Amino acid sequence: MKTKSLLILILVIVLINTGKPQGVKGFGLKTGISIANHKWNYSETYLDKVYKYSPGSVVFFNIGVFGEFLNTEYVSTVIDFWYTSKGADFEYDSKDMYGNKIGTEEVENRLRYFSF
Prior knowledge:
By secondary structure, the chain is an alpha+beta fold. The protein has helices spanning 2-18, 45-50, and strands spanning 24-36, 58-69, 77-95, 101-115.
């Protein structure tokens, strides 16, 4: 089944690249990497006591597709569809009801979005 699916995908890509309609000038795949490195400064000293560790750097992989259409002498249109992810990871000490440290909690803060 995987071989048939791969063969069909290759055949579709070859046919699209050999027979382009007049309305489509080009299309392609875009990839990228984003690195999120967050820093924070609190105005309240209490928050500095709670969050002793700065957020760590996180690497994200981005992917998108584009197409160029309606290419005339005066007008050309490019459509872009892109997936991006950003965020930060950080830790803080978890404490019991008496204020004793019982462990470390990890938080993964993520923002994922599509752009068109």
